[in-house]
Design goal:
homodimer, alpha+beta, Arc Repressor Mutant, subunit A, 2 domains, two-stranded antiparallel sheet, 9 helices, 11 strands, globular, DNA-binding
DNA sequence: CGCACACTTCGTTTACCATCAAACTATGGC
DNA sequence: GCCATAGTTTGATGGTAAACGAAGTGTGCG
């Protein structure tokens, strides 16, 4: 279970049960123990409970042990249709590889930081981030005034890593549609990244999508 | 057991049994397993079998795990009389802190290297090392001709780390006595490092002894 | 040579822990 | 409001591995 989590992605208890080839109940008690021992952390989203490694310490220990064991692990392959995996909507914001990439990029640029006031999986825009997004045409102040969480880490279904949700996520999708960076599929949640969009994402955010 | 070995010192199976608070027989089967799994290596000397960590990999893994456990280990304290621990003879060569320090220093200076032709715990002098020792007044060629092993790793009883044995070790002790770097105690195996010797060891080998 | 010591091998016992099924709780969708 | 799905709790069970004592092997010392 732990080794399957070293890629940084989160997994549900049922998936981890399958990975370990044990029954869901066995997996449950095991994961409970791993949680109390601070090896993994849980993140409940809807009726799914996503488990991921607690921190870099744990990954380091696993790495060191796998060196001893001389094992090479086979990587996780998501079995989501590739069109949906690349980019799609999640309620009213961007998910899929694109969503996760944006999230990672915004954190790397320090536009987004973990919220100090709210819970664990909430974000704040830094002054830099607010300026940059205003410059792109997002009304950050308006988004702040809405009666909903401003920005949150939403766990991505296909990538199993967080993307940006909340009012800010919605504003980003709105912007991307308005600027024709992406177009919405009519009968699915898939998003198409336009040629123009690909260029813009690259120059504005340094995002290089396959 | 493994944690008690992270300091790089070797320990006997009886000591490790005491460390783990189990019977000698239990320790024996456990150590056997650790050996086949390449976590520790054995070195038989007389009727003692010294166990030590197999390599840096193992130490790294233990380190990573202890970070997770948040434990701080209490270090090994040798219970040997300090006079004997500092310097003494082992058969006909130098043992104790001084012996181990010389061994470590010679390896660091690349005067001594693991023997390519003989077994695992044998040494060869490098050309550099031979020159340096000849310059000090050791007849290296004569030592080579003796019908005994030239240089070997002899596990130090108090330090639990190797010092230099064999013909080379004997020649080193002979030199140290002749140059009055050390004087031999009359009724024990203890060696006294003279003031002069301390100075010489410092300038010639960069050895700083307490 | 024989004793003492260091350690290992063997066979047996015991305790524990992983595992599962069944029952239970929680969440989302219609 | 009800069903389906996701996950957890609980209690019983069996397999396994850790542990020990007793007997065996090997090494050094007098």
């Amino acid at each position: 279970m732990l080794y399957s989590l070293v890629d940084g992605r989160a997994r549900t208890s049922t998936e981890l049960a399958a990975v370990a080839a044990v029954s869901p109940s066995t997996a449950s008690v095991h994961l409970q123990r791993l949680t109390t021992q601070r090896l993994v952390k849980v993140f409940a989203q809807g009726k799914h409970r996503y488990y991921s490694l607690e921190g870099a310490n744990v990954a380091a220990a696993l790495e060191a042990l796998s060196v001893l064991a001389g094992a090479s692990r086979n990587p996780f392959v998501p079995n989501t249709p590739s069109r949906l995996r690349a980019a799609r909507t999640c309620y009213d914001h961007i998910a899929g590889t694109l969503g996760v990439s944006l999230h990672d990029r915004f954190k790397a640029l320090v536009w987004l930081s973990a919220s100090s006031t709210h819970g664990n999986n909430r974000y704040d825009l830094t002054p830099n981030g607010a300026n940059a997004l205003e410059a792109l045409g997002i009304d950050v102040e308006a988004a702040r005034k809405l009666r909903r969480r401003f920005a949150s880490a939403c766990l991505d279904w296909s990538e199993r890593r967080p993307h940006i949700g909340g009012a800010l996520g919605a504003a980003l999708l709105e912007l991307a549609l308005k600027k024709k960076w992406v177009t919405q599929d009519l009968d699915s949640r898939a998003l198409d990244i336009t040629k123009h969009g690909r260029r813009e994402l690259s120059t504005r955010f340094g995002l290089d999508l396959e």
